[in-house]
Amino acid sequence: MGKLNDMKKEYDSIVIPEELNVRVRQEIEKSQKREEERKRSGNMPRLRKSFGYAAAAAAIGIIFTTALNVNPIFAKEAAKLPVVGELARILTFKSYTTAKDHMEISIEIPTIDMISKDTRNAADDINREILSLCTQYADEAERRAKEYQAAFLETGGSLEEWADHNIKITLNYEIKRQNGSCLSFLIRGTESWTTAYSETKYYNLDLNTGKHLTLKDLLGSDYVSLANERIRKQIAERQKAGEVFFSEEEGGFTGISEDSGFYINERNRPVIVFEKYEIAPGASGNVEFEIKPASEQDYVAETRKQSENPEETEERYEDNFAVSQKAAKEFAQNANINFGVTDGVLSINGINY
Questions:
Q1: Could you say which residues of the chain have pLDDT below 50?
Q2: What is the strand order of the sheet 103-114 is part of?
Q3: Of 86, 98, 155, 233, which is most buried with the most CB atoms under 10 A?
Q4: Cα distances (Å, whole numbers) of residue 338 to 23, 66, 108, 326
Q5: 262-264 and 182-191 as β-strands: parallel, antiparallel, unpaired?
Q6: Could you give the angle at the alpha carbon of 261 between the alpha carbons of 256 and 263, nearest 5°?
Q7: 199 in the Ramachandran plot: left (φ > 0), alpha (ψ -120 to 50) or beta?
Q8: DSSP character at residue 88
Q9: CA atoms within 13 A on the CB side of 181
Q10: pLDDT tens sequence across 231-254
Q11: Are the beta carbons of 186 and 193 closer than 8 angstroms?
């Protein structure tokens, strides 16, 4: 593993997943387009009936979003919903928070579910690795904290003073990039009392084959020279802007290796990450460098293709449910929300949409 970052936030800071917001907007836009098309054709009777079904689909998203904001239990469970793509999805395999010996331990372990049968064996291997690494990190982090506690008490510290340290051990994951062909995510563990054992593990997967993507796959056979050149150039530019980096003599950047940690960003470019204190002072935190492909023309061509054929290249989000109006009403009742569609008009809690 590499070096880790944020602590898992408490329930009251749960953010509604962007994928859900995108899904809601998509359904609303679809229903609006159908309504406009039917208005132009003058076929209003059929519009009302069709819009009823479209409104029901959009209503599910609206009700779902409303429930996230008003129902604590519902919101907590919704935070665990998988991010679904075309070929794979990430689910939370294990999640728990405990407090003991004046320490808080928050663990969230992901698992990959490959949709394609051809890649499921590869996913099983990765999931076993993830579980092993996460379990090992959690156990070792707790052991280190207990050793620190023992040393603190042996040197005259009290339990009250120890409690004031607010010791927190966190292990969670973050999805960086997901589209029809790749999945990039990281697992990070942090310990609030030390930076010596913070770790990050990066996973970049080809969803068509289930194999790990490497810097060589993304940048070509000359990836080492290319990445080193781009990083040195960025360091020089950032130093001119006031950032501080260690010199090579001080243990600063000397070059990447095949084991350098990276994730894939929204531009489908690798971002190489150096952990805190690795090539710069701790105040800089993790230091990242986006690496452009060998030929900028390739990237321009890719961007042009996306603009010309957005439906072929845009990220698509899918939900895990297809709902009828009856199911929508039952769901709304369970969430204590008054929902109805009358003459093509959607009503939630007495408000027409």
A1: 2-12, 14-19, 44-54, 57-58, 60-61, 64-65, 67-70, 74-75, 78-85, 298-304, 306-307, 310-324
A2: 83-84, 88-100, 103-114, 167-178, 182-191, 194-206
A3: 86
A4: 22, 11, 34, 13
A5: unpaired
A6: 120
A7: beta
A8: E
A9: 8
A10: 999 999 999 999 999 999 999 999
A11: no
How many alpha carbons fall within 13 Å on the CB side of residue 195? 11
pLDDT digits (tens, 9 = 90+) for 302-336: 444 544 554 444 444 434 444 445 555 555 565 55
C-alpha distances out from residue 27 to 20, 24, 55, 166, 178, Å: 11, 5, 8, 45, 21
Q: Which amino acid is at 37?
A: E
- The helix (run of H) or strand (run of E) holding residue 57 is helix 44-70
- How many H helices and E strands in the chain? 10, 12
Q: Which amino acid is at 54?
A: A
What token pair was written down for 247?
């010199």
